[in-house]
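batch job 7 of whatever, protein = DNA primase
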Amino acid sequence: MSLPPGFLDELKTRASMSQVAGRKVMWDTRKSNQGKGDMWAPCPFHQEKTASFHVDDKKGFYYCFGCHAKGDVVSFVQETENVSFIEAVEIIAREAGMQMPARDPKAQEKADRRSQLADVMEQAVQFFRLNLKTNAAAPARDYLTKRGLGDAALERWNIGFAPDGWQALWDHLTGKGVAEDLILAAGLAKPSNQGKRPYDTFRNRIMFPIRDPRGRAIAFGGRAMDPNDNAKYLNSPETELFDKGRSLYNHGPAREAAGKGQPLIVAEGYMDVIALSEAGFTSTVAPLGTAVTEAQLQLLWRISDEPIIALDGDTAGLRAAMRVVDLALPLIEAGKSLRFCLMPEGLDPDDLLRSEGAGAMRRLLDQAIPMVQLLWRRETEGKTFDSPERKAALDVTLSEAIRHVRDQSLRRHYGDEINRLRRILFDGAPEGQGGKARKFQRGGFGRSFGKPIPIPMPETKSSALAAAGTAFEDHLREAVILATLVRHPALVDRFMADLERMNTTRPEHDAVRSALLQTGGAKPDELTRICGADALEKLTQARHVQIAPGVRSGAGQDIAEMSVAEELAKLAARRGAIRELDDALEDFSGAADEVLTTRLRQAAEARNKSEKSGSDDRAEYDLGPNGARVKRDEKQKLSSLLDQIDFSKGRRDRP
């Protein structure tokens, strides 16, 4: 529905951000100032112990300095309650005592119908629960008792039983005056193809209600009591209430438990979720009869940054784990990934808990492996790499897999970890040691040269070459970026993501950066209140910053935007070049070869490309090895290192 002009503003004025958020967080009384509406608490969106979640009641917004979640009172309710925009507005309006505007008749009709369907589903829950206590359900009760579920657990999970009759539920609901079209629309019955009365969807099954995050029954899962039944487990069909690929079993309680510090566990089925929760692992969910979907992954990451996928230790469980890996690779990002806990062969979590107890399960969860290791195991376990061709095929396969990771920084870390595992496999080098120089790069693995390369000596790491491209230049670029955004606060929203990723070199820069993120762009006096006048003054002390296009008095917003974008690009290029130099140093062994020279030349060229090559600074450059253009001071550093290289020593190891 569309809201009339001014309604949302009035709602946000009446609704206190701290009161709404206070239902989900515990305020840090030492850090908060309630009188000024400046409130701090551990973040409800990710697990933490420190109070990095900030609410500004006067401005009506929140921001987490840990996970960078941000928004207003409406988005907070949307995220924490997992509801739509309009539903969030309705919740806030109800609490604020505001009357919602009249709905569009069609929208109202749709909402009313969903409420009616949810009511029908709840009546079905009660019917199945009563039937579990009948004589006909004795085998079902025996089965549940053998699975370790007592009366209290059955009550908590609302487990029931669908009688073995064609119209038992149908007759019960119609006898209560429920309209036939609602029973069919809820997926509780199916029309007959033979012109007879509709028949019950679930018959002779143990029934598990599936609820949405708000606790409303939206579907059922049924386990067959007849071993000859075509489907051991059967879910409700998709309805106006139930979208199987966008729902999770036990979503609401698991989200609440995760917010209190429990690790989020993803199991395969209903009984696994119930067994784990009853054993104390209360933040456990399950997909609903299918492989995990992209929508379900996003739901999981809204609950926890690193869910643990706990799958059966059989072939099917491993295949399911690999499907999750392939689905997740293009979606992961810094701070959002998965870990995998594989059960012992032939056991599921329920089996393990009943045979060895919660302690054994906790130990397995503590040993959950990151996704990159499962990817490595898939491509290497049970395979032999006794020829260059097989090794090359592995390189190509892994390179193609990692290329799906969209985040460039994360992709590089994946390459580093694969390279470490590869050295262990092919060279037998223990973790943390060298191995032959087979470096995994963006395009695959490099060649192997020379003898094993030792760990770089401390004096090498701190050499002039390793420090080429001083932090002073980074400091100036950061100052230009921040000073420009302070002068042009309207640009902060445009560069919000870049600010969040920026690693600053000085504490005062980080203070200004945090203030800009916190306020989303504000007047200098507001920034001064947050980060202090000293931090702002230090930004423009350097002449280079004072004359920057976006900082100078009278600079237009277009010029300022171009200036910030350019400086961010140069800063990223410069730091990328420094990482290349670090990679080159890792290949240096005191008996370096032509590969090192090439790596150094490439790194220097990358470094040079990140610099502006205007006429004023041309005199600062000379030609380096193989014609590479190198800054004069960097040429001296390169020359000093190259003078130490004994190239004949490297060539003796080659045919």
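notes: Residues 624 and 635 are 6 Å apart (CA to CA).
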